[in-house]
Amino acid sequence: MELYSGYIxxxxxxxxxxxxxxxxxxxxxxxHIINMPKDKVENLANAMTEARNNIKYCKECFTLTDNEICxxxxxxxxxxxxxxxxxxxxxxxxxxxxxxxxxVYHVLHGxxxxxxxxxxxxxxxxxxxxxxxxxxxxxxIIATNSSIEGETTAMYISKLIKSSGIxxxxxxxxxxxxGELENIxxxxxxxxxxxxxxx
Amino acid sequence: MELYSGYIxxxxxxxxxxxxxxxxxxxxxxxHIINMPKDKVENLANAMTEARNNIKYCKECFTLTDNEICxxxxxxxxxxxxxxxxxxxxxxxxxxxxxxxxxVYHVLHGxxxxxxxxxxxxxxxxxxxxxxxxxxxxxxIIATNSSIEGETTAMYISKLIKSSGIxxxxxxxxxxxxGELENIxxxxxxxxxxxxxxx
Lengths: 199, 199
Fold this sequence. Notes:
Chain A is an alpha/beta fold and 199 residues long. Chain A is built from 8 helices and 6 strands; from the N terminus they run H-H-H-E-E-H-E-H-E-H-E-H-E-H. Chain A is globular. Chains A and B meet through helix 1, helix 2, helix 3, strand 2 and helix 5 of A and helix 1, helix 2, helix 3, strand 2 and helix 5 of B.
C-alpha cells in the first residue's frame, strides 16, 4: 500500500529532486502546499513556469534577464569598457548589491571543470573573447569563485587575454571581514599573509 | 534598479514564503528551476496545483487522501475498533512505516495551543468524539507529539474519553533507540527513568 495518496507522493517526488531538498523537507513542503490557499499555489506554480518560459540570456553579458539586453548593459552611465567576469547571475547580483562597481559584467554560466568534462567551450568563454574583440575594453576583472574550478578558469582566461594587451585583474582573496581567524582554512590564511598591505 | 529580472524576483518571492526556505535557498532554487528542462518545470508546477486541488480529507479518519475513504480505513483486515490519534498525516505515515500497527487512525490536524488560540474545536476533536459514539471502540491510543501542545491535547482527550469507559493509552516516551544519553534533554531522561521496566 502507498503510504501517501498518489497526488502527495507525486508532489513529494517532484520536490525532492530540487537542490538542498531531501525527502523530509519535501514532505514538509508538500503538506504546506496542500494547506495553502488555492490561489497562492497557482501563483507559485505560475511563477515557476513563467520564469522558465520567459527568461532570456542578455545578448551582451549573458546574464539571465527578461529582455534582449539586461538593465546593467542598457545603463549608459556605466563603464562598458570595464568587464567583470563572474560564474553566474547570482554572483553578478552579489556585486551589484555592493553598489560599488560601475563597470559591466560577463556571465560565464559555469567554470572550467575537467573532472566533470566542462571545458572552456562549454561555458560562455568564446562569447567573452568575441566581445573583447568588438569592445575596446580597458580592464577585465576576473571574479570567478575562489574554488579550484574558479581559479583554473581565472588562470585560463588571464592567459588568453593578457597577450592582447588588455589589463587583467583578479579580485583579492583573504580573510573575510568579520571572520574569526581560528575558523578560517590554511589556504586562505596564507593567501591573506602573502597579500598583506602596509598600514 | 531591480537586481534580478521581474520573473526571477517574483519566483524568488514566491519560493521564500515556503517553510524552511530563506532568501538564499529561494535564490538557489529559482536559478535551478530556470535551468531545468521546460517539461520538468511543468511537471513540478502541475504536481503542486493538482495535489492542492484534488486532495480530500478521509471521511472516517480525516487524513489527507485522494478518495472519500483512505486506504487504511478501507482495509477490512485492520482493527477498526483500535484508534490511534495523531496530529497530522505525516505522523500517521511515520507509524504506517513501522508496519507494526494494525488498527486505524484519527488525524487531528493540529494540537491544542492556547497561546496561538487553537482550542479543542479548532482541530478534528469533535469529529473524534462523534466517531467514538458510532464505532464500538476498544482502545484509543494517543500518539500526539511529546511537546507541550501534544501533551496538553493528550491530557484533554484522555479526560474526555475515559468517562465513557473506553481504554485510553499514550505512546511511551523515553530515550530514542540509538540515542546517546549525553545528548538527551533532562525531561526525557527523567521520564525514561520513571517508565523503567524490569529486565
